[in-house]
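Risk mitigation, structural track. In case the binding assays with glutamine fail to produce interpretable data, a predicted complex structure has been prepared as a fallback.
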Amino acid sequence: MTDYTRATATEQAAALAAGDVTSVELTQQHLDRIAAVDGPVHAFLHVSDEIALTAAAAVDAARAAGEELPALAGVPIAVKDVLVTEGIPTTAGSRILEGWVPPYDGTVTARLRAARMPILGKTNMDEFAMGSSTEFSGYGPTHNPWDLDRIPGGSGGGSAAAVAAYEAPLAIGSDTGGSIRQPAAVTGTVGVKPTYGGVSRYGAIALASSLDQLGPVARTVADTAALHEVMGGHDPKDATSLDEPVPACTAAVAQGVDGDLKGVKVGVVEQLGGEGYQDGVRSRFEESLDLLRARGAETVEVSCPSFEYALAAYYLILPSEASSNLAKFDSVRFGMRVEKDNVENTMRATRAEGFGDEVKRRIILGTYALSAGYYDAYYGSAQKVRTLIQRDFAAAFGKADVLVSPTTPTTPFKLGERLDDPLAMYLNDVATIPANLAGIPGMSLPAGLAPEDGLPVGFQILAPAHEDARLYRVGAALEADLVASWGGPLLAQAPELEVAK
Ligand code: GLN
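Fallback model:
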């Protein structure tokens, strides 16, 4: 039997449609791969093998009966543990939710099930999506498949690592300040943060509601496009959900692969590069710009001066919203309960034990920033900066159709290296955070390996709100030329993981 775990989701869907493999076989191959490599990688917090195989058997039966099926029917998927899944434990990487089995599905979960995609399990993440390395998970870190001593990025390190290690062809991520794009960059995978409101947040455990967005994770741009079309679209259960058609992502991929980029203006953001960016990150970024120009795109320099304050504004707005969102974990409604003599002490003991240090740090920061007398000075100022950043983007998009930058300043660092230095950890997201503050869509795709350490570098593309299709057109064109230059996908250059017997 052919092993399909290295095939793309698009190829897997074609093999299913052609009858070359069944969904049960395909799902079992991925479950076997998880059993073989996930010990050391630790991408999964929970593997839902029975649920996946039952869904796979049902889709096989439907196919055999000649039913018309959605494009990705039968292709298995991994889901970040931030998304609520009925009957499958959901923890958001926190001990405070240990053992919680949701009684309902988030909208994206429901759409995956309606698309007949077997859910392989829940992926590891920094607790409540706070972090850039997955080291703040309450259940131990995920390891980067390129080098098990290095971080897979965060907060969605589990989803990126699962896809990079061929444990799943597709995964769901969430991006509040970069948690889809940054893990994609450091694992050599593709991740997309859609326009704010483009994918329903109903049933996604909230970190910062004005920034959060769910999105697709995969090994190719075409696969993220296919998954985006499954996830996206209006949802009356989310008041911020956009009431407009899902972007034509797969059509844009075809346009990008087949066509040139004549007339497309690519803005290189002056503030997202240069000093503080690793040499190999910069050289790979420059090479990608050359490829875009060779396809006919015109590159222009754009300046976004307010980006200098983006990180500071983000780390006031995010903790403020998070401190309010996390108030619901009160020992009464969900998960863990440390019983004490009265309600207040029970609540205090539960939150003290259930939350990790980073979560506590942000709750304290946010509560302080929102307190009477400080609100205007901190939260108010941060909101003003947010407006300036949005104006910078508006001006930049007046000069360019898409904006580009390296996704992260460096390749993946060693586990433990930045654990005691919150500011160094926060700096991973300097290039990804502005998009969240403005609500615009962004993509990271592999740009090659940094010559100095042989580790993956990510290329970021940003587009105006509602113009997600531009990411797919430009991303697919660049990816096609990069893959041709490498003689195959970048992940083919990753070292083989040791397989458990
Ligand atoms: N690393 C950022 C943070 O710690 C982004 C997190 C995210 O996007 N969920 O907040």
